[in-house]
Amino acid sequence: MFRKIVSNLPFSPALIGQLGFYAKRLRKEEATRRIGLIFTALALVVQAFAVFTPPESANAANGNDIIYGGFSSKSELLEIYDRNRDSAGHRDIQAIYSYYGITRDDIANAKWTTFNSRDQGNTIQSIGRSTVSFESTPRKITGTSTTIYERQLSKFDTTDWSKRNGTTYKAVVGKRAIDGKWFAIIADCGNASVVSLPPAPKAACSSLTITPLTRTKFKFNAKASTSSGATISGYTYTVKDGSGATVHTTNQATAATTNSVEYEFAEDGSYTVEVVVATSVGNKSGGSCVQTLTVSPEPRCPLNPDLVESSPDCKPCEDNPDIWYKDENCRSEFELMKNISNTSQLITDANNTTVSSGDRLEYRLSVKNVGSTTGTYTIEDNLSDVLEYATIVDTGGGTLLQQDDTTPIERVGTITWPAVEIAPGETITKIVSVQVKSPIPATPRNIGNPESYDCKMVNTFAGNETIANINCPTAKVVEQVVDELPQTGPAENIAFAGILLAVVVYFYARSRQQKKEIRLIRRDLNTGVI
Question: What is the pLDDT, as a whole number, of residue 157?
Fold first, then answer.
């Protein structure tokens, strides 16, 4: 309609009034529809409460009900049991049924049926949360603050003559697994009905045995027993020393009837171990669960009483098992020997013999451990004096130190070998071969070291000295005969220097005088004076 008015407005200007009227009507309709939408949303909210809030029983609920308002089926009873809460907020439903030995499995295995209050030889006892006009027995439910009241179910019939033959109840009826006894849970109130209480749960700490694993480490083995539904939640082991002070406590959370822990004692002495078993009927211990033990001192080392037998230092000397390995008599001791042989002249012991140019010599270095234990020795030999007249042919596996930026000058000419372990009685031998130079050097002796270039090759190895004499050239023989040059003192040196200075000054002055004279003559010649 609105579109029609707008399309005809150019042909009929009078339609402008109708257009305004129509716009007002549209605004009113929009407001009405908005109100309808709000009420629809509120209705959906209310409906949600109805859907998500569980329905309450239509029974006449009473404060005596174990399940307030009861239940309508076995499945609903199981839901309430699993939730452990009814519409009144009671959270003790499971504990009450458990007190009477009724488990969830018992309920699940029971039947949805009826029973009469006079069944079971009129011995059925019913429980509730409130007292009644006839005799009731109060029962405190373990683990809760709830007290329920137990009475004979048929007593309720006496208040109504029409029920003289008993009352029929809709209920979940079954047998308890714990003892096979009959039970029922009445649908209208959730009150349990039984013919007898279940056997009282019992638990005990049966024994504690202690098994040594090492001198200081022990294993504690505990046993417990339960019956009639009692359960175990853990074991607590307490260790006390001889003075009664607690030195260790261990808690083990477990439901098993056996348990064990290991503990290693830090100190020697006598101790008492007690185990307490935590059960659903309280903590249990006893004489059989308290034992004593002794941690004996560790045996001393027979080789050194200052040490214990298990010490890594408690070990004998390598070559003498009767003494400690760190005893002053248990040490490595090395005997050093050296021999020189001339293989060119076939001389086995060439010490103090004369060698010729080109002869080949062998220096044999021996180290023997004459001590009682294995020791480490680093063999090295300084051949600097030998190398003045010979060259190395074979170092015998050693390293010859030569002149460089890292080797001190006094170490040049030394052959070194890596450190080696030498067992008691063992001998290590190194052989170095040298060849006498050809020709033999005629280098004069060093003033600071008269033994240098002295026609002898002297080698000392740990106090063992070997000497090989050299056939030196004639110049060296003269050097040995003429021990020193003529002596001159400082006076002679000064006199000689003074004479030399005077001669030099004279010739210098004479040349300057000649130069000056030539210059004067040239000047006079240019001026025409000459």
Answer: 80
Is-cis flag, bond preceding 54, omega within 30? no
CB contact at 8 A, 492 and 499: no
Structure token digits, residue 286: 């006893």
- Ramachandran area for residue 88 (φ above 0: left; ψ -120 to 50: alpha; else beta): alpha
Of 62, 173, 68, 160, nearest to 114 (Cα)? Answer: 173
DSSP string, 322-334: TSBTTSTTS---E
CA angle centred on 365, ends 361 and 367, rounded to 5°: 170
- Taking residue 514's Cβ as centre, other Cβ atoms within 10 Å add up to 9
- List pLDDT tens digits, range 429-479: 999 999 999 888 888 877 767 778 888 899 888 778 899 998 887 666 556
Find out whether 273 and 208 touch, Cβ atoms under 8 Å. yes
Q: Phi and psi dihedrals of 414, rounded to 5?
A: -95, 135
What's the 3-state SS for 29-73?
Answer: HHHHHHHHHHHHHHHHHHHHHHHHCCCCCCCCCCCCCCCCCCCCC
Under DSSP, is residue 339 helix (H, G, I), strand (E, B) or coil? Answer: strand
HEC sequence for 476-487 = HHHHHHCCCCCC
Indicate the range of 34-43, 55-64, 286-295, 410-419 predicted with least confidence: 55-64
Structure tokens at 202: 């019992």
pLDDT tens digit sequence for 4-29: 655 554 556 555 555 555 556 656 66
Which residue in 97, 96, 105 sits closest to 141, CA to CA?
96
Based on its alpha-carbon atoms, the radius of gyration of the chain, rounded to whole angstroms, reads: 61
**What residues are paired with 226 via a beta bridge?**
203
Q: How far apart are CA 133 and CA 5, in angstroms?
A: 86
